[in-house]
């Protein structure tokens, strides 16, 4: 058979190898675990306690929270090596497509700003918004997989994705501060609608009341909180610019627990607690100052089932833990010579309390998701109904 007669078959084989090389790289399962060890080695859920204990507060006080690892993306994950001819053809395909060595950089967080999760049994999925990567990272803790959602609509990518609020059907609402609206994604990350377009100015923090379906949106530029019903229609506007109770100066993050809405009133250096049903201000947590427990630039806020309020103080690179009445319990993460670099935050932003009680922190300038675990001394029977 002449070369010319064999050429179509050769071209078909080359095309097949390119398809295998490209498809194989995207479809292979990704599996991994949290990183525990101080030397950077990988650990497993069971291996974590074997690492040197990092706890807060330091001895001789009894420990209340322990370092439980971090995620940056694929550096903690791995794709299983394929055996046999498929692996060979994959390499050939990548070489022919000009991708050999061009896509070797691992997929990892760049500037994570917010974290949330769907709370599904077995761990569920954890969502991390990354304005640096202009994407949503989706970590499946039960299946050990990682996905990247990059589309905000047909032909539209994210610009500055920030706030996150899972939907009851497994989807996700995402506030994009630069686009100026909230995008609703289906469980596979496909855009299926918009909320607040033409109404919101700079949406940032989100919180959802699962019972009523209401979505609370912190509109930072408008200095208010906008409330949308389950159909995505504007229902109410809470607050406005000012420093009086119930007024805001650049609100950025929200949390909802037991009928109460927690609002990080960033430039007023406080967290306001409102009655979610009507927006009635009840109390505030923190005040402006440099004394431990006071606030300078608060960001993320989250409430656990015992009613403890976790507030990210980004200026001091700490997470402050308050009781339900706003009394400081302890700081987590202030830099000290006794604390190794792995356990120090660098401009942390968002925070979320997982169903198992773990506290996850979007550690922005460390480009990671940090995990803190309450010790048995802290764990208590649930007293707060979370949405």
TrEMBL record:
PROSITE patterns on file: NHL, PROKAR_LIPOPROTEIN
One family name in Pfam for this protein: NHL
Native organism: Sphaerotilus mobilis
Stored PANTHER family: E3 UBIQUITIN-PROTEIN LIGASE NHLRC1-RELATED (PTHR24104), PROTEIN LIN-41 (PTHR24104:SF25)
Signal sequence annotation: none
Highest taxon of source: Bacteria
Protein name: DNA-binding beta-propeller fold protein YncE
Keywords associated with the record: DNA-binding, Repeat
One example GO MF annotation: DNA binding
SUPFAM superfamilies: NHL repeat
Transmembrane is among the record's keywords: no
Chain positions of NHL repeats: 193-231, 282-325
Cited InterPro entries: 6-blade_b-propeller_TolB-like, NHL_repeat, TRIM-NHL_E3_ligases
